[in-house]
Amino acid sequence: MDRPFYPEKIFEFIPELLPYLLVTFEILIGTVIVGLVLGFFLARAMLSKHKWKRNVAGFIINAFRCTPSIVMLFIIFYGLPNLFWALFKVDINDWAKAFYVITALGLLFSASAAEIMRGSYLAVPAGQREAALTSGLTEKQSFIRIMLPQAFVVSLPNFGNSLIALLKEGSLAFTIGLIDVMGKGNLIISMNFGGYALETYTALAIIYWVLTILLEQLFKRIEKHFSKGRKSL
After folding, report:
1. Which residues, 6 or more positions from 30, have their beta carbon under 8 angstroms from its beta carbon?
2. Are residues 57 and 46 in contact, defined by beta-carbon separation less than 8 angstroms?
3. What is the reported pLDDT for 209?
4. What is the C-alpha R_g of the chain?
5. Going by C-beta distance under 8 Å and a sequence separation of 6 or more, which residues neighbour residue 211?
6. What was the pLDDT predicted at 233?
7. What is the rounded distance in angstroms from the CA atom of residue 88 to the CA atom of residue 93?
8. DSSP assignment of 54-115
9. Exposed end of the chain (fewer CB within 10 Å): N or C?
10. Are 92 and 86 in contact (CB under 8 A)?
11. For position 180, what pLDDT does the model report?
């Protein structure tokens, strides 16, 4: 039997969902931090002169990129407690579920972050670094003052796209019982015994659409600001 559709319910559910965006944002910020830190070391290894470092980093990046998000989340959620117990005799089963989500998505995001960092660094002409070293700057100074600002601007479009994808992947958190905005949506459907599912998911879609548009506009403004006075590479 077809269920009737009640458009007014969409606007009734949105206020109920919005408070749970705090959990979604916490997951997003935590994942970005973990991913950027790990991604930096992977990118550095990929740019290393040592072949074994490049091979190891390349293997890790490919392994993460080939692993579906839901699979990684379940591996971390069910496997990490066993690993901690086997190695350290520490029970982490009662740790916050956000820890597992951030760890899983952070590992996956580190692969994208590493490729973005590596590609952005290589996009800066090598002559920039050589000129900086010739002028008397150290390797560290030339990286911070010359290479990093230019690579940062180059990375913004790809980083923004990755962030938007990450925002949507965070919706998987409800599969292990973490109640974020998606989890709250599923609770609303459950409390209505499966009713208003279309209305609830439409409300969720509107929220994600608005967030995506806001992120796109934010990164466009940031890119425009930092690109002032710079020539295209």
Report:
1. 98, 102, 106
2. yes
3. 96
4. 22
5. 21, 167
6. 46
7. 14
8. HHHHHHHHHHHHTS-HHHHHHHHHHHHHHHHHHHH----TTS-HHHHHHHHHHHHHHHHHHH
9. N
10. no
11. 94
- How many CB atoms sit inside 10 A of residue 121's CB? 20
DSSP the chain: -PPPP-HHHHHHHHHHHGGGHHHHHHHHHHHHHHHHHHHHHHHHHHT-S-HHHHHHHHHHHHHHHTS-HHHHHHHHHHHHHHHHHHHH----TTS-HHHHHHHHHHHHHHHHHHHHHHHHHHHS-HHHHHHHHHTT--HHHHIIIIIHHHHHHHHHHHHHHHHHHHHHHGGGGGGGT--SHHHHHHHHHHHTTTTTHHHHHHHHHHHHHHHHHHHHHHHHHHHHHHTTT----
Please report the pLDDT score of residue 229 as a whole number: 55
Distance CA(210)–CA(18), nearest Å, equals: 12
pLDDT by 10-residue block (mean), the chain, 233 residues:
82 96 96 97 94 96 95 96 94 94 97 95 85 82 86 92 93 92 94 91 96 94 79 50
Map tokens 């070391």 to a residue.
41
Q: How far apart are CA 96 and CA 38, in angstroms?
A: 21
